Amino acid sequence: MLMFSIVLLVIKFSAYIITHSNAILTDALESIINVVAGGFALFSVYYASQPKDEKHPYGHGKIEYLSVGIEGGLIIIAGGSIIVKSIMAFFHPTEISSIDIGVYISVFAGTANYFMGAYLIKQGKLKNSSLMVADGKHLVSDTVSSVGLVIGLIVIYFTKLNWLDNVIAILFGFYIFVTGFKLIKESVNSLLDEADYKKLNQVVEILNKNRSEKWIDMHNLRVLKYGAHLHVDSHITLPWYEKLEDSHLEVTAVENLIKDKLEGEVEFFIHADPCLPDSCPICSVKNCAARRSEFVKQLDWTLENMLPDAKHTLK
């Protein structure tokens, strides 16, 4: 990623030197961000891979979200700089030349960005790395801007309206600015442990498909992300008369199930609760000598009844 960004940076600035196009300069300035972000991402991936220790009991994975936030901040600075320079260019115009060469270089850079971005997104999802996914999306978004850039340069080439170069640069500046803002928002939400409903729904689906009759209910479900690591908290309601060893086996079965089905490293903390008389109508345990009322139906587990810290009942 880092070497790839450096090569593209050299190519894009070469295109700017040849053409003097502000639109191409916007693309080149964003490549500086890619190089800086690539360097920090390299360090972040290394740091996030370090094992847990006494000072970091949940690992070092959250540095990835910090890296995403820094990348977003740098992108916002680049977008703002592009907008200011392009506005100033209306008052101090420069002559544009060799637009055809700029088009060829932009097509090459955009194509390279797309394939590298798609690769990073795929690898990020496989390795459960939000940083790799964010970098991949950033490169793919560069492809979108490159397509617009090429179209704009072609229009300038045929119309000879050089002022359009500044208009295109301003539009891309705003696009880059918005991209940076979205990355900062994603970073802040992750650092504040915003609920990942996609991951929560995955957990709920896994538990629903593999539930045991002794798992009367599961509630107070939480999923926290630490880079590629997931920390899952939950309470499980089990028959109150079970021996401690038997309850422990059920808890271990739930833990192993989640670890086996979810991608990445998973740490599962689960608390066992004894069932209450109100649990009987939803409890499907057969031949239960302690049953206080007849079984009515088994409730489907959903986010609505698994997230609250409350045992499930028909009431």
Structural account:
The protein is mainly alpha-helical. The protein has helices spanning 2-19, 22-48, 63-91, 99-126, 130-159, 164-191, 197-210, 244-261, 303-306, and strands spanning 217-226, 229-238, 265-274. It has a three-stranded mixed beta sheet.
Topology:
Elements (H helix, E strand, L loop, with lengths): L1 H18 L2 H27 L14 H29 L7 H28 L3 H30 L4 H28 L5 H14 L6 E10 L2 E10 L5 H18 L3 E10 L28 H4 L9
Parallel strand pairs: 2-3
Antiparallel strand pairs: 1-2
Helix pairs in contact: 1-2, 1-4, 2-3, 2-5, 2-6, 3-5, 3-6, 4-5, 5-6, 7-8
Main attributes of the structure:
single chain, 315 residues, mainly alpha, Alpha-lytic protease prodomain-like, Alpha-Beta Plaits, 2 domains, three-stranded mixed β-sheet, 62% helix, elongated
Distance between the termini: 55 Å
Output the helix-strand order: HHHHHHHEEHEH
Using only C-alpha atoms, the radius of gyration works out to 27 Å
Helical content band: 55-70%
The total strand number stands at: 3
- The averaged pLDDT comes out at 81
Q: Return the CATH topology of the largest domain.
A: Alpha-lytic protease prodomain-like
Structural class: mainly alpha
Main sheet: which strands, in order across? 1-2-3
- Write down the domain tally: 2
The CATH class designation of the largest domain is Mainly Alpha
Strand content: 5-15%
What characteristic shape results from the CA principal axes?
Answer: elongated
**Sequence stretches where pLDDT stays below 50 over 5 or more residues:** none
Count of alpha and pi helical runs: 9
Largest sheet: 3 strands, mixed
What CATH architecture label of the largest domain applies?
A: Up-down Bundle
